[in-house]
Amino acid sequence: MGNNKGGSKKNAATTSERGGPKKNAATTSEMTAQTGSPSKYRKNRKDSWDWRLNIRTWRRILLGLLLLLLCCFVGYQMWSEKESKGKVGESPPVQVSFNFTGHALFVFGDSTVDAGNFGFTAPPYGIDYKGMTPRFTNGRTIADYLAIKMGTQIPRAYNSLGPDELKDDTVNINFAAGGCGLLTNTMPIRCATMLDQVNQMVEARPGNSKGQRAVYFVSAGANDFVFNFNGNPEGFAKELVGKMESYMEVKALRVNELLVSRGGARTFLINNIGPIGCIPDKSINWSRICNETLNEGVKAYNMKLVDVLKKFQNDFNVSIILADSDKMFTDMVDHPLQFGLKNITHPCCGDWNAKDNKFDCRNQTEVCSNRNEFLFFDGAHFTQNANKVFVDYCILGRVCYPIESV
Q: Where is the composition biased (Polar residues) (predicted)?
């Protein structure tokens, strides 16, 4: 017991020297004097820590949210870049760039490539192509840009040429006429049918020395869906592709007869049809909601067209290149910013005509100033900028490819 008391005194002295209990007691007394009781002090101290904890917690939450938003933004950018690389201009199974240098160019079809044979186009059509017969766009068509890429003369409208010019081997000719289709009754006013266009070429070029080294470009079929579609996608596509097959056979036979001593025609560039149901004239309320019944017909036609062209190539020993207008149109609609486009639903030039259910682009119609940012010039035709993009991608082999690779 004595040792314990001595030890307690020693411990107390040591503790007293260190000042721990005295300081604690003083602190407690001071806080008690301020707060009124030790328990109230402890409560205030707890509240203070809770407040600090809340501040720290909210800081961490806000920091976490900022990091999450940053990750989402970076992830979206990476996904967007991957999507654009994977889809825009995605290569076909066999990618082949084309070099048509030194070739002549003959054009057949409808308003997508018409150079003035229709005869009724007037400003503001051709607003960016001064001095030339207005096309169904603000400037050049895909046929015009194709000629530029080939390094050959831009084909001139058949109806604008005199007898001597028609016989001139240095003159490329465009036989296409707006409003024409593969079906003979697809003609809103007057039109040289596709077979008429072939006959015009044969009659005009009986001794064409450039016939063998020529590209025969055909862009037709869209007007048949615009003016003649009967609401039966599969049946209409079958009828239409049958007409294309017949037209191509007659064309090949007539051209090969004409050029038999020189080996006949060898290269055909055939345009398929884009999703007509998505053009401003046919979309639902001029939005990105398309007329899918029309598009089903177009899809069926394009699939059947591939089989017809493969057979045609084998039967006539010619070279067929498919221009995939459907893919190019879809890419530009799905990834407009990749092509510098900001408006893919409304025409640059067009007042809605409720009676005819289409956009009218006339002399008094206001025309947009930023035409390169529009996909459509009027309610059915691309701007010249979109036409140029199509040809650029075609020559690179991204949307044009040998039919055997499809």
A: 25-38
> How far is it, in rounded angstroms, from Cα 214 to Cα 210?
6
Distance CA 114, CA 135 (A): 6
CA-based radius of gyration for the chain: 37
Supply 176's token pair. Answer: 């296409």
Amino acid 105 reads: L
Does domain 104-402 sit in CATH 3.40.50.1110?
yes
Q: How far apart are CA 118 and CA 105, in angstroms?
A: 19
Whole-angstrom distance, CA of residue 151 vs CA of residue 213: 13
Contact 84, 338 (CB under 8 A): yes
Q: Which residue, 183, 173, 232, 176, is CA-closest to 205? A: 173
Q: What is the mean pLDDT of residues 382-406?
A: 94
Contact in structure between 269 and 319 (CB atoms under 8 Å) = no
Q: What is the pLDDT of residues 124-134, one digit of tens each?
A: 999 999 878 88
Q: Print burial letters for 179-203: b (CB count within 10 Å at least 16), e (below 16).
A: bbbbbeebbeeebbbbbebbebbbe
Spans of all domains in the chain: 104-402
What does the DSSP assignment read for 16-35?
HHHTHHHHHHHHHHHHHHHH
User: What distance in Å separates the CA atoms of residue 95 and residue 326, rounded to the nearest whole number?
Assistant: 17
Longest CA pairwise span in the chain (Å): 141
Token pair listed for 218: 């055909």
